[in-house]
Every structure is written in structure tokens, then in C-alpha cells.
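Deliverable D4.2, example record:
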Amino acid sequence: MLGVLSPGDVAIDVGAFKGGYTYWMRRAVGAEGAVVAFEPQPLAAAMLRRYASAFRWSNVTIEECALSSASGTLALLVPGEGVTPAASLVGASLPPGPGRYDVTVDTLDRYLAAHPVPAPIRLMKVDVEGHELEVFRGAQRTLSEQRPAILFECEARHLWGVTMHQVFGHLRGLGYHGSFFDGGDLVDVARFDADARQVEGRRPYVNNFVFVPDR
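Output generated by the structure prediction step:
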């Protein structure tokens, strides 16, 4: 992420949660750059706003909404109480009996049309617990025209009705090629096997992927 971003760039943090990536993004893009952080959990979004105010993150915009393939309202499923990294718009990723409340959803394409950013988007980070394909569908114009690098988490156990290779295939159809982290190396995503690489309790457990535009 830090190798991609430079001062003056724009970065998008989808599923910002407590702002771990937002923090480093804002440092990388500097005062002349911008970060837009999307977080649908009200308590987590409020926490981020307090951080931004207290530490004067003037280059960060925090939006209390989720991203998807259409604008509107969807149920966010939240296991336990308070804020959690397991909150999801996809029911298959959660244990029985999660909490549920409605959240606002938007598409990245529509959001950017209504809220232009000061420079092309250089990086898009996505951590949405199984909703990745819908986020990318709602960002199709942005990905096709602005060509940001994409860093995202994807796990077979979180997906419902689609496979990881369908997610990868969608991005390939937009002119991207992907890799996954294998120790200190980046390996072509064509060699990824979820049955071998995503076994709970076995290390390394691979769930982070990088897709960059074809040259």
C-alpha cells in the first residue's frame, strides 16, 4: 500500500472499521492528497470521526455507509455487541443469531459522481466480509476509468452464491491481473487454491489479494 501511494494521491478505504488502513493512507497521501473511508457501523464511524477531529486528519472524509452494487438500504448483520470486524451484508459469513440493523448503502461510482475527489484514485482497499463482488460491480466505472490498484480481503467461507474465482474473474474482465501474498512473495492468483490456502488453523492462511491494472 505504501509503495503505491504518494503525496497528492487519493485512496479509498472500504470497510474502514477502526481506521488501521486509513491512518497509513492519510500519512502516505499527505496534506495535498485525500482519503475517503466508508464504514457502515455507526459506533465505528463515530470513533473514526473522533480520531479525525482529535488528530486533525484534514485529508480524511468519513462516510457512514456501506458500498455495494446499488444505492439504498440493506441489513447489516453484526455478531455480538458493539463494533466488530465481522459485520457483514452477507449472512453466510456469520454464526447463527447475529444482530441486525439497516444501513445506508451506495455505489462508489455514484458517490464519486456526487462528491468529486481532487485527483485520480490510486488505491482502493476493500474489507467487506464476503461482499467484494458487489462492491466491485458498483465501482465498475471507477475501476475502468481511473485504474486504481486494489488491495482486498477475500475468503471462501464468507461468500454466498459466488466463488472467489468469480470475484477474481470479474476484475480480470476489467483489465486487472491479481496476486496473493505467500510469505514475502507475490504469487499469480491463477495458482491460488482455496482448499489448500484457506484451511482454518493451518498457516499460512491466505486471504489478502492485490490486483493491479494490466499495462
